Amino acid sequence: MSALFPILPFADDETPLSWAARQAAFHTCGRALAFLTDLGIPLVDLARGDEAAVLRLCERAGHDPAAVLRNTISAVGGRRYRLRGLEFAAEFTTGPVTRICPACLDDDLTGARLPGAALRHRLIWKLAPVRTCPVHGTALRDLRLGKWDDIAHELQAMTSLIDNERGVPGRARVVSPLQDYAVARLEGCPGPAWLDGQDIDQAVRATEMLGALEAFGPKLKASDMSEDMWDAAGRAGWPIVSEGGAAIREYLMTRVTASRGKRAAPRAAFGMLHAWLSGSRLSKKPGPIRDMLRDVILETTLLSKGHMLLGKPVTDPHLCSVASIAKAEGLDARTLRNVLQVAGLLSPAEAEQGSNRLVIDYTVARDLIDIVKHAVPVTRLPDLLGASRPLVAILIELGKLHRVLDQRALESKVGKAVDGRGVKSILRFLKIKFPTINETPEGFVNLSKSAEISRSRLKAILELIFLGHLKKVYRVSGAHGFAAVVVDPEEIKALLVSPPPGLSDDSYFLMD
């Protein structure tokens, strides 16, 4: 297959499509579509960065493909693209819009014998965050013909639009730090760690959204932003993001403080940043900025358990109304208010207010609430465990039951009570460890009687049971808890002759 002659070299700052359009003008004085069709290369394949299409173009042009492939933006599926090893969403590009610098095109045309072969569409013009010419220091312009082949960015087909733009004086401005960062990252240069830790499009978008909030406030919508405004947003966001995660969090907290006087909701405090990150149809992963904003909202905003916040349900809210906490925990709201008052989390006056109006830190109250939910009065334990009062006292002494009196803040409210989860644990232990029988075996007696016969303390017998030393233990059907337990006094006597390990010191002392 013969190569095109003479060779038109690929410029290291242009795109494969730009090179194809220049070759079409150079070899045929025509358009890119017809030229590529003659070469057997579909325009859409080259536009989507298909490697086979690029290689075929290089083969016909007699050119080393390395430089061309390096400047190829390739579709990887799911509206995602790759350039120089970096992946990004379609929105990181200009799409069908052709961005130009009229001054650069003036330079192309100066002294050119074939204008069509000289006009180059620069690779960086294809990137959405590139809005300023780094050569001439002027704002770039956006062109579009409104046709299907706008995807080719064929400057040779836009000469009238380009001529109009060349006649308009450029607006001078320096390149933004965000644009510098994006271009440098594609060149393989490192930047701020927080930005480099995410996809390039995520880094750029987060910077612009934070900057838009800083530059224009929370009321402006993203749909009302112009390219110049996005450029200003990138400049405003750069000082925040370049300092890293701690600085970003600090900035978000200041936005909360600024809006707190108005009791603002997150959307009112964070504007388009919140709208972007909470969108139900958010198709692109926004990166770490979403979790950072979510954490700040969790810490500073009244929320209820189960509320959907930035794509995830709230499982551990911080600030909550007493009413929502009571509902989530299955508690009576008045009881909860009283407990919170006793614990010092509410004043007496606040405790008399409606639960919907009272806001507390759920994380501080959670342990107290947990105790209240499971507290069981000591007076109920004999019935719940089928045990005598002395036996209940021994269970507490052994640590099988835990008094909530250890929580002094609740002492006057819950009185003498234990954690009810210990009751369930003991009953479960008896059920699993000891078989049920219909009649008491000969020689077996209940726990109190076994202490008398064996001349031992009930505490020691319970220790033998819980440590697994007593093997002959049964539960008689028709009774509940410890009332159903029968043991063999003779087995107890035999064990006490040579006490097994694990008993308490006072049990050993009384056996001597």
TrEMBL record:
InterPro entries reported in the protein's UniProt record: TniQ
This protein's name: TniQ family protein
TniQ domain mapped to chain residues: 9-140
Highest taxon in the source lineage: Bacteria
Source organism: Pseudosulfitobacter pseudonitzschiae
One Pfam family from the record: TniQ
